[in-house]
Amino acid sequence: METENVVTHPGRGLHGQAVEELGRRIIRGDYPPGSVVDPVKFETELGVSKTVVREALRVLAAKGLLESRQKRGTTIRPRADWNLLDSDLLRWQGSSAPTDAFLGDLAEVRAIVEPAGARLAAARRTASDLDAMRQALDAMAAAGTDADAMVEADLAFHRALLDAAHNELLSRMEVVIEAGLRVRDRIVHGARHFSDSIPVHRELLAAVEAGDPDAAVAAVESLLAQASHDLAAVQAQEDHADLATHPLPEEDS
Predict the structure, then answer these.
(1) 150 occurs within a structural domain
(2) pTM strictly above 0.90
(3) Distance between CA atoms of residues 128 and 235, nearest Å
(4) Which domain holds residue 43?
(5) In angstroms, how far apart are the furthest CA atoms of the chain?
(6) Torsion sign over Cα 178, 184, 189, 190
(7) What is the pLDDT of residues 86-132, one digit of tens each?
(8) What is the CATH number of the domain that holds 35?
(9) What's 73's DSSP letter?
(10) pLDDT tens for residues 209-218?
């Protein structure tokens, strides 16, 4: 019997790897809601102990992905019960092949949260907030063609922007903003098809530094529009490539 090749996740222990692997499988639909999963099968496939699997399932249950009941066993819960704002779930949804619906939801949340954050940041920023934004912007400029470095610097800038609003609950929205940015940046920078976003980031920093809320909001909205345009361009390019590889069948005349 063939065994499944299980992806390992460097830097994580056996327990963490089991959580990652099983979580990704559930998110991508390998086990549809309502289906019963077999812990013993997981032990064999992942090559780990009963204790590791049990602890991994406990973590995934806490995230709302599954539940265990006597006589029914362990089942996948409906998507409506999932803790979709959990940082791991957001990451798992965006790390494989994110759906258009997921990307659209992330874009809408960013369009709601980031302009509000920028408006507050312009009124409340401190010298240390501005320093953090400058350092992130400098890192973006220094990243050059290093996509990974650019992504991390971009994340640091937007994290600093939300923190500059000095609203603890708004800062917690970082997990959603980071998920949206990371997915978008991974797609766009990976395709090497993107506009230079550093100038508009500089405009945003200048507006926050000047204490101009309206200019800060306008800069964020320009940045989000540019991000959406770049993502759409990559998706259109991929669709064109797919059509060229798999042309639609001709209709009978």
Answers:
(1) yes
(2) no
(3) 38
(4) 14-81
(5) 70
(6) positive
(7) 989 988 887 766 788 888 888 899 999 999 999 999 999 999 999 99
(8) 1.10.10.10
(9) E
(10) 999 999 999 9
